[in-house]
Task: structure prediction
Amino acid sequence: MSVLTDIIERARSILFRRRDERELAEELEFHTAMEAEKLERRGLSPAEARRQTSLALGGVERVKDDVRDARGTRFLHDGQRDMAFALRTLARNPGFAAVAVLTLAVGIGGTTAVYSAVDAVLLQPLPYQQPGQLVRLYFTDVRRKEERGVVTPVHFLDYRQSMSAFSSIAALFLYSEAGADIGSGDDVRRIRILPVSADYFDVVRVQPSIGRPFSRDEETNAPVVVLSHALWKDKFGGDPSAVGKSLIMNGRSYTIAGVMPEGFADPLAGSVDAWVPGDLSPGRDPNEAGNHYLSVIARLRPDVTLARAQAELDRLSKTLADRYPNARYAGARLDPLKEDIVGDSSKPLEIMLGAVAMVLVLICVNLANLLLVRGTDRAREFALRSALGAERRRLVRQTLIESLTLALAGDVAGIIVAYFAMKAIVAIGAGSIPRLSTLTLEPRLLVFSLVIASLSALGFGLWPALRAARTQPGDILREQGRSATSGGVQMRLRQWLVVSQVALAFVLLVGAGLLIASFQRIRQVPLGVRPEGVLAFELHLPEARYDSIARARFYETVAERIAALPGVVAAGGVSKLPATGDFNIWGTQALTGPLANLDRGNIAGQNRVVSGRYFDAVGISLLDGRLFDEHDDTSVPRRVIISRAAADRMFPGVRAVGQSLTTGGGPREIVGVVADVALDPQGRSGEGYVYHPHRQFAGDRNWSLVQVVRTTGSLEQLQGEVRRLIASLDPQLVMYKPVALTEAIGRGEAQRVFTLRLLTTFAGVALGLAALGLFGVLSYGVRLRRREFGIRMALGANGGSIRRMVLREGMVVTAIGVAIGLLGAVALSRVLTSLVFGVSTLDPRVLASAAVFMGLVAGFAAYLPAHRATSVEPSSVLQ
Amino acid sequence: MAGEPGELLQGTLEMMVLKTLSLEPMHGWGIAQRIQQMSNDVFLVTQGSLYPALIRMKRRGWLTTSWRVTENSRRARYYELTAAGRKQLGFEQASWLRASAAVNWVMNARLVPDGGRA
Result:
């Protein structure tokens, strides 16, 4: 025989299957007709002839199957038939199908979305060329190497000149005012600008797509600007001839030097609208060696390791320490940029990944449970069919196809869930987790989840069929009739599956509980301010139109006018919102009192500039002396208010009011002492605050004070009123980034909120799955034991005792699960340490609450089956 | 597989089909009738064995098919031997003769007393 003909014939059969089938039917019809005719010729009636023919020839369908076998296309035909059968079977039991598909969807969707987040934030390199070469350079005190501070321009210029380990190094002026008003007249808007040194573009290895970068000659605040792609599109309609034109920013005219490529984001600041050259000229003055304000990134030469670069930097620091006596202890340390950026987000995301893995396992277990029940149910169907002559191979294949259909449906649903879950994660985490906005579905994981979930569906779906194929049909059929408590082995397996589910759900519950407890603790931390009911917004006064005198007057006017609005208690401004981090830490020395001019009388003061009635607006109470008033202007000596911590440190044992100190360039007289304010929402305290009246300090720089307004009414309404008021004062001013003070302070906590929300969701899903599993096992057990219950009740057992029996079974399973989960929680407690605040990872109250909660849910899940057990009508099962 | 009776029968059926078709092209029912007649009603060829055999033989390139109208004007699929089929018939006929002769020898053998050797 020719192999080629064979192949062609087979291929033809597949291609022309439909026609072949039609022709085969016709051919067989012809055969039957001829046979019948023959019989009719012998004298039989036509009907009888047909009947006898059919009997003699055997089933037409059977012949067709055999022909298909010979043709080599039977598998196709059967497959199609099995698929239709599978769909029918699943449709007949829509509850089962829905739960299975939903379980798969949650498993695949949830895991993929969360893993994609982890991948985007943790695993993917920075979106720059050779990201491994990028480092962050921090100032550090050689006596306290773990310290990470910003760098002085003096040191920056020395690093740039001397460091051979760097191929390029750049300074980012993140610390300085980062907003600017562009345009004029009615078309004023606020944009985010970032002053940088010239080599910035070399470090990130991204050059402007049109135009040019900055040159070192321009590192003097030169009026040139590089636009972001978005701003260029928006403001200039993407016109390439915009380069060379001018752009008015803060009333000053800048020449557009270039436009960055689309999608470029700053590694530290994120989305920036425009880059301008920073001013490095103060760096040439050695007296500035104590003035820190630059964020520095660098690119290592390809052959240089981090350790070698650090060694060179250490040697250089020693030389510099000799050169600049007022920066004797200055050093620098290098961190890989990625580590620096990802930093704190890595822990929550790793924990999230663990949670995802647990949920995935839970889902597989649930699926196993579902399919095992179904398999047991169908074992009888299979036994019956195989007793009636169905091929075992065929039965197995049919189950396989059924599981495959389920898995496929689950996969599709999973991809849809993944898509929306990802949207949700971005919505929850945007702003608090860096680089989350770049999130896309991670294809490798999608495939991984699809495979895992589908395999578990296939595996657990197939197992009962394989078992059915091995056992004698008679055994199963007999077992059904005889035994009142059948399926014992499988029952135990399923109980253990539920135990594992309860254990996993318990661990997730504990995790969520710990986070919730941490939250409560953080909320209870006294911050020294009352942030509720306070609106905050930035108000930038362009220097071109507002000199220092105008600025001093305007901020006071705004505060007064806002305070006159209905419902407003007090209004004011501050250079940095309370409890949002360090700012303007200047050496502060007591000039009078017991520690006058002594080293012990020197603190790292947190300096703040305030306008209006700032203290009343945010709720900082006055402890001694007075608050600032309209007389504290440039015509009188400089005055300050200090916090109690500062007073206790600099003037121990004496009244601080009336004493003097020096900070920010000269002596100041202390007129008041106020309560301490935490530096962050966790309640970190510094060495103390020094508050300056803006009236006296406006000339130092444009402070761009953040305005705070306390109201008894709604913040939204207030926001509209303030916006109208500002427009009436100066229509060109922008009310920038209005936000509730609670939210502004909460910002640092956003990461914990992100983790909490995701973990709570997972705990909820896990709890649901465990409850579902428990419910399933108990219901099934009840169904199996209907006869037993019937007999018991017929013998006089009452409903209550049977209900208790089922409930007890559920509780035993739950208790074992919780016990194992407890061990898991202990094992994982070290991992969770970084996430909790003010609460032990083995906090007994959290553990107890989780156990009680688990027990309640389990009780709920067990109640329905228990109730159903007592609804058995003895006569109906015993007949 | 030569030891399995099913295979032998199947092979025999194919050979007989080839023989039938070597006389003239024929439709499936005709083939069955012809074999029944020619074997004096010893072989009753069922649809279940005939059509799969025809398909297999077609796949091997021994037969071609065409739709024609019968003498009593019905449409039927006619099978016809190809050159390869004809060659196969010759080959099978020869090996059948050889095999049946051999089987006959075996079946007709008797125990000959020959100094204790069989």
About this structure: Chain B has four helices and three strands. Chain B touches chain A through 24 residues (CB under 8 Å).
